[in-house]
Structure formats: C-alpha cells, structure tokens
Amino acid sequence: MNIFVQIFLQRRGIRILIILMLILSSVGVFLFCNINKPFVEDIDELHKQLITISGIFTALMLTILMPFFIERANERQLIINEYNKDCKRVAAFRAFVYHIRDFDMFESSSSLQFTYLKGRSFQEYKESSEFFSELYSLSNEGKVKGENIGRMELYGAIRDFAYDFPSGISFFSKYSEYTYSYEKLQYIHYCCNMIWYSLDRHNYLRQALNRSYSFHSTYWIGVMEKLIPFFSIEKTKLPLKDPANFVMSQAGEYEQIISNMLNKMHKILFELSPQNYSSISLDTIFILLFGLIMPLYTLLFKIPLFHNQVTGLICFTITITFIINFLIDVYKIFNKDNFKEKYENETRPLFDRRRY
Fold it and tell me: How far is the C-alpha of 54 from the C-alpha of 91, rounded, in Å?
C-alpha cells in the first residue's frame, strides 16, 4: 500500500491518469444510472457552474499561494546572492593554494606522486586499502620515508582543491567567480578538510611549507599575497610571518564556509527550486483553459447539443482532475520529506573520473 501511495504522489503522469480514470468512471456510472440526466438538460448550466467554480478556485489559489511563492522566490534570490559572494572568496583561496603546488617541499615526493596520484583523484587514492597497505609496508621496510608520504598526500589534497581543468580560467588572476556543481563543491570541501588535517597533524609539513615559502620566487609570493585580501577571513598583516599556520587556519575556516555553501546550494537546487512549483503552474493553466475559457466559448457560440454535451464532459473531467492534482501538488510542496527524498535520488558522483 505504501508503495502505491509513493508512486501516486511522485509520478505526476500516473497520478493524473488515475484521477482522470476515476472521474470518467464515476461519470459513466451516473450516465448509466441516468441520475438527474446529467449533461443533457442543463448543459449550459454546467458550463456556468464550471466557470464559477474555476474562477473562485483560481482567485483563492492566487490570493493564498502567490505571497508564499513570492516570499520563497525572494529568499532563493537572497541565498543565490550570498552563494555567489562565497564562490568568489573560495575561488580566491583556491587560486592562492594553487601556487603552493610549485613549492620545492614536494620535490622529494615526486616519484610517489607519479605512482599513486597520476591518473586518479586524491579521494580515490585515500579510499584505496591496497595503496594504504603497500605504503605502510614500504614505510616499515625503510624504502619510503613517512614524511614523503605526508608530503605526497598534502600535494594531492592541494592539487585537487586548486586544480580546475574544465574551467579554462587562469588561477594567476586575482580571483575567478565559479558556479560550482553540488558534486564539485562536495569534493573541494573534502580536499579542503584534508589540507587542514595534514597541516594540523604534521609539524614537519608546517615547517617545510614555511621554509619553501621563504625561498620561493619573490614575484610569485607577491602574486599570492595580493590574493589574500580577497579571501582572508580576518585582516592579515603582510608579509606573512607564519604562512603554514595561515594556510591551515584559512583551510579550517573555508571548510566551514564550503559546508555552509553546500547547505545554501541544497536550498537553491531543491527546497526553493522553481521546478517545485512548475506542476502548480501547469495545473493552473489546465484549470483556466478547461474551466473558464472553453465553457465561455460554448456559451458565446451556439453549437449542436451533442457537441455541447461532449465539450461539457471534457471540461468537467479535466477541470476536476487538475483541481484534485493541484491540491496534491500543494501537499507535496509543504511536505519537506519530499525534498529530502528528491535530493537523495538525484545525487551523483562527487567527481568526474575522466578529470585526470
């Protein structure tokens, strides 16, 4: 029974077909029983009643629901504006982090990078138990230094956090505004968290980053520091005295910012999406067309009785069908579990495997 109810609520086409069949069946029963001779003697009266009912229903619908729709649209636009500002800040931070990839601190782990990171995402590497076991054995045997594994993992997190090949936009500019996909945002959130975790856990990584920063090209350090005002959470004094601590603290802050962006995008894409109201717009169009416009035409123009009866039956059936469907659509809009279920059904992979 629950499965039938779910199909009835979620499948709009099936729901309309079921309602239509039920109404046609009931009309057929009334015609067969000849109760009050429907659609025969008072067909013009039926058209008038349809016009009255549809007019009142549409007026109430617009009066009650339009303020709600306008409020939701304004809320959605406000969240979109906030989200766009966050995108600029995240893009600036990603542009800053991009330059860290060229630091000499990662040279000692270049062979590990080639073996374990080339051709796959950082998350794929982290989720591989085979790689973990292999590196653990190599480390115990003294063939690979544990510090180089840490450097490789920090490099992988930085590479995937900052690198954005499909965009084609240079990271050397001040910042670039992005419209992130939900999956992309989830993935850079994961990488940002790993950057913070690596620097927070390993003191040698912080020391290496500070040393590389101090010996890096003066020109590129200047480019990096010009980006800082565009993303720094607090006012930062330049030049940086402790770059590693700065990057770690910013990564921790942006982990929270990106998490909030995911919540905002969830509202934009699902809870406040105009698609949630498109079904109601369609209901309204059918109610106006078959409940107001067509009955008015039949009253204005004299047509044969049989054609008038058929038109009345069609208008009555379709109008009542979409009034019932409208009420179900309104119920679904105010049922928040429906949004959660839609989100779960539409989630796609966190990153594109073809990216590397």
Answer: 51
